[in-house]
Amino acid sequence: MPIDHAIQCIHDPFLVVLSYVVSVLGSFTALQLAIAIPSATTPGQRWRAVTAAGIAMGGGAIWAMHFIAMLACKMDVAVTYDLPITVGSAIIAVVSCMAGLAIAGSGLFNWGKLILGGVLMGLGVTGMHYAGMAAMLMPADTVYNTNLVLASAAIAVVASIVALWLAFNLRGWGQMLGSALVMGVAVCGMHYTGMLAASFIPNKAGSAALAGGISGGYLGIGIFVVTTALLAAVLTLSLLRQRQRAMVRI
């Protein structure tokens, strides 16, 4: 069937807003946690900081945003999501963000490490997005516009380089909040460019295509609530530890 007969994706505005909010909160939390990477005095401290910031960025700012935004896409056919592939896409996001943070935050900060870390992180984010798209189970085939796929990858790489630069060059609350707002726009821009690249062409698979997938009318809101609560708890603990360190120095 030609692309002219593709199924239309109408985005739920409420879930789109939630996807942006969780991306901003995840970005802000990751920027706060990344402060501990260059100041770590032992390899153990450094890797704990890299892991925490990577989970906040990859799991909260990027993957949770992506999945909520995927659920925001309403179509005339039923859609469920393959759980192993969905979990795998989250792991890709977290691992790629950890790799980018570890590379950019090792030793003295320089542009070579920043670009290498940003490229690896951006390609990982791109892989996460299209793995997440592959997790969609529905009676339709997905066809991609190559130019838009490349554009989404370019946005992911640029956004990752910017995110890493911000993580190791900003300290003030105001600066971090402004940067998190911008990062939310960049992450959402990558996702929706990737969605624009996809056309969904109906096939004859019927309800059998949905077998074994997860779905739910409130799944997007549930992910938002759980992710927000976890990020808020991690952010609160991080800020309390920073305050305790400051008091010890005094």
TrEMBL record:
Residues 11-201 form the MHYT domain. It holds the Pfam family MHYT. It comes from the Bacteria. GO terms for cellular component: membrane. InterPro entries: MHYT_dom. This is MHYT domain-containing protein. It comes from Lysobacter firmicutimachus. The chain crosses the membrane at residues 14-37, 49-71, 83-103, 115-136, 148-168, 180-201, 221-240.
